[in-house]
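Backbone-to-sequence.
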């Protein structure tokens, strides 16, 4: 003979008699709420992990497609894309793709990632119409250039006033001259190309890049390929045959370190201030530098403390040369063969340095 249910359970499970209202106590309600809370707490990390996994897959696809665009550029031009002139110059649709082109590697790659119209914006125009079209282009985000774990591409307003020519983009005026133009809103990217294992590269290229469209009388620009050991530099880039370590052993692109404070607000001293269609500057190029002692340039998490890289002021160059990401496990990078993998934030500094150098003797000594 079965035992009767306890009265507390019977109130919940047993059918009510005709005309009888069934209720529950406050204690029972609190128990149910507690159970639901526990279930939500258990499920939430799993949901967040699934979302991050999806974002990581999308970021991987972005890097893969960008790298394929770089390689398609090489197939057409017999060299990898140059990174243009120094950063305040923007892409010029009437200047080709050699050392005369002030735009950087992304601008050069646009036709090879199905963005020919964006690349050609402003072609053949002059004056105010030209600058209107260039300003519009420089504010156009590309989902392919943004990690979904971090942000959309903007456009974002510049922290520094555009009234100063030093912080206004510069391009050809369509008549053989050049001028600055207003551009308060700028699209940002999250991926950078490798210049090798150097440091101070942004400052070096600012010193040697052209200041006008006139021929350079000094002869120091463009620099020779022996002046850098990555795959691209200001005004120059290497051919595939010059990647002596092998395409599968050489860094091509990677996520760049960007602190969360700059995700939606430009901060020029943290290398997140120029449009991604501009030339050689530390928003678009990064390094695997290692001095053999202090591992300053291994990839960092976006939220990591980088105060160790600031020696004298917030303007120290170290943080502006780093690869890094918003992912929990590490930083996604691509190699020159088109493959994409994740590099741990704990990667050996010498191993990572070797990955950036195109001809230092072969594959990194240990796995990433």
């Amino acid at each position: 003979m079965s035992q009767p249910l306890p009265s507390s359970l019977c109130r919940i499970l047993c059918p009510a008699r005709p005309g009888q209202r069934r209720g529950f106590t406050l204690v029972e309600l609190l128990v149910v709420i507690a159970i639901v809370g526990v279930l939500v707490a258990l499920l939430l990390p799993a949901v967040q992990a699934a979302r991050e996994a999806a974002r990581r897959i999308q970021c991987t696809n972005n890097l893969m497609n960008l790298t394929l665009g770089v390689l398609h550029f090489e197939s057409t031009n017999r060299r990898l894309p140059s990174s243009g002139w120094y950063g305040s110059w923007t892409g010029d649709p009437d200047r080709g793709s050699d050392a005369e082109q002030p735009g950087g590697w992304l601008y050069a790659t646009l036709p090879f990632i199905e963005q020919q119209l964006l690349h050609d914006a402003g072609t053949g125009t002059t004056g105010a119409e030209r600058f209107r079209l260039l300003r519009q282009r420089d504010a156009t985000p590309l989902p392919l250039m943004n990690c979904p774990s971090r942000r959309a591409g903007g456009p974002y307003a510049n922290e520094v006033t555009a009234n100063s020519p030093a912080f206004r983009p510069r391009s050809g005026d369509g008549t053989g001259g050049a001028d600055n133009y207003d551009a308060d809103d700028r699209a940002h990217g999250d991926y950078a190309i490798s210049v090798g294992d150097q440091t101070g590269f942004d400052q070096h290229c600012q010193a040697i890049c052209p200041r006008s469209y006139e021929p350079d009388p000094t002869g120091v620009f463009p620099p020779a390929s022996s002046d850098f050991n990555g795959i691209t530099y200001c005004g120059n880039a290497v051919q595939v045959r010059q990647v002596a370590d092998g395409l599968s052993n050489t860094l091509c692109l990677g996520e760049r370190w960007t602190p969360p404070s700059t995700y939606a607000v430009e901060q020029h001293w943290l290398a997140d201030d120029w449009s991604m269609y501009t030339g050689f500057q530390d928003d678009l190029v990064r390094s695997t530098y290692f001095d053999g002692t202090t591992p300053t340039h291994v990839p960092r998490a976006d939220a990591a403390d980088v105060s160790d890289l600031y020696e004298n002021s917030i303007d120290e160059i170290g943080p502006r040369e780093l690869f890094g990401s918003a992912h929990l496990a590490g930083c996604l990078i691509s190699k020159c063969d088109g493959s994409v993998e994740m590099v741990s934030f704990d990667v050996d500094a010498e191993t990572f340095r070797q990955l950036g150098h195109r001809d230092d003797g072969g594959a990194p000594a240990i796995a990433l």
